[in-house]
Design goal:
Blueprint: H1 2-25, H2 55-59, H3 74-95, H4 104-127, H5 132-149, H6 154-174, H7 182-195, H8 200-220, H9 233-253
Length: 257
């Protein structure tokens, strides 16, 4: 079991390194296939032994070997988070009973979806952009998985996705784009498809709740003003696992179950 966890952790670090590069390059229209990584300060190409996920950052003290300037902490943070996320997903998929998340294929699909959601979270947090292509691939992955494993829930899941999107579209139109971006509306289709009709309203409630709490903290800490625009996509993403884990409990508390 320990060796399996080590393997999953290392695999997560590798994919985390890819996600860190993808989320930095994509908003800048730089292809991930365009050569090896380079230092953003001196533009020196990073050697392979200085690009080992997490370890290279620690060994180099968070500095570029060439120019000695600090490298952003986002890279090891994303790598470590991805690795921990991989372990959590594998544990959840193999230990939670009465769920369809069993078998190697289900675990692979869940890991792919995790990477897509993570990339959307990071890009929207840093650039207030939710790429349509990422949402499309997420919808495709979830749809194929649902059709193959639980086909009887496919149309209800599609309905919940479009219901969530319609609610956010109403907010977008009512606020003339100031309260909600179209990227959030499109993402709601994916989020609703993942969550399903029973918990879709709980998901949106938790997203607005966490967004409000963080917004108040930022305002009180003078990191944002009342008119500052805060990306809502990260809260939509963050609320998905919250809803999956605690959604039924919230329904019970609200006496809706």
């Amino acid at each position: 079991m320990i060796l399996q966890l080590i393997f999953i952790f290392i695999l997560g670090l590798i994919f985390g390194s890819f996600i860190s590069a993808l989320t930095w390059r994509y908003p800048r229209n730089i292809s991930v296939n365009k050569g090896r990584s380079m230092c953003p300060k001196c533009k020196h190409q990073i050697y392979w032994y200085d690009n080992i996920p997490l370890l290279s950052y620690l060994f180099l003290g968070g500095k570029c070997r060439n120019c000695k300037k600090h490298i952003s902490f986002r890279y090891p943070l994303i790598e470590a988070f991805t690795a921990l996320g991989f372990i959590a997903i594998v544990y959840f998929a193999t230990n939670v009973q009465d769920t369809v998340l069993h078998g190697i294929y289900s675990i692979v699909v869940f890991l792919i979806l995790f990477l897509i959601l993570e990339a959307i979270f990071i890009i929207d947090l840093e650039h207030q952009i939710i790429p349509d292509s990422f949402v499309f691939w997420g919808v495709l992955v979830v749809s194929l998985y649902t059709i193959y494993y639980i086909p009887n829930t496919f149309f209800s899941s599609i309905f919940s996705g479009f219901l969530a999107a319609c609610l956010l579209l109403f907010i977008h139109l009512f606020t003339k784009g100031k309260g909600m971006g179209l990227g959030d509306v499109k993402f709601a289709v994916l989020g609703g498809l993942i969550i399903g009709p029973k918990l879709v309203m709980i998901w949106l409630f938790l997203a607005f709740l966490t967004g409000a709490v963080i917004g108040i903290i930022l305002i009180l800490g003078k990191k944002a003003g009342l008119k500052s625009q805060i990306a809502f996509g990260p809260f939509l993403v963050f609320s998905i696992p919250l809803t999956i884990i605690y959604g039924d409990r919230v329904l019970t508390i609200l006496k809706l179950k």
